[in-house]
């Protein structure tokens, strides 16, 4: 089944086909960054440490089909959960559609160009390190970034 033009404006997340759902991902890689949550305030802070499965050159999971078995805290996004996942970045297409905000102009479904995410400064490409490069005793607080929105 192919996606309908501008399907995200016509359908809720739960009404989307698998093809439509998957095409909403802009490939920014932000959701694959390690995050820290302040226990007192609930505020989420992003680090520039990426999941070990994230290919830092393509910003795509290197083993998407098996990620849930390989990474114990990997989250499979589901339409019914998106509204409750406060750690999704503001720019996330799933979050934006769930909140009725539509897609950003740089989103590949709007621009027709997968590189538009990088040009708009929304990709984590060349901004992160793999968790495999961070020592076990490293303090993840030292890796907090402010550029994730």
From TrEMBL:
It holds the Pfam family CxxCxxCC. InterPro entries: Puta_zinc/iron-chelating_dom, UCP006173. Belongs to the UPF0260 family. HAMAP family: UPF0260 (MF_00676). This is UPF0260 protein IB286_05770. It comes from Spongiibacter pelagi.
């Amino acid at each position: 089944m192919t996606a309908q033009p501008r399907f995200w404006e016509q359908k809720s997340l739960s009404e989307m086909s698998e093809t439509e759902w998957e095409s909403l991902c802009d490939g920014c890689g932000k959701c694959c960054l390690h995050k820290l949550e302040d226990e007192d305030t609930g505020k989420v802070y992003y680090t520039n440490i990426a999941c070990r499965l994230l290919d830092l050159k393509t910003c795509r999971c290197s083993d998407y089909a098996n990620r849930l078995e390989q990474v114990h805290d990997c989250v499979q996004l589901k339409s019914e959960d998106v509204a409750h996942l406060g750690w999704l970045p503001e720019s996330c297409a799933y979050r934006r559609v769930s909140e009725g905000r539509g897609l950003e102009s740089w989103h590949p479904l709007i621009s027709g160009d997968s590189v538009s995410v990088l040009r708009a400064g929304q990709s984590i490409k060349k901004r992160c390190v793999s968790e495999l490069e961070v020592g076990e005793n490293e303090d993840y607080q030292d890796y907090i970034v402010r550029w994730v929105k």
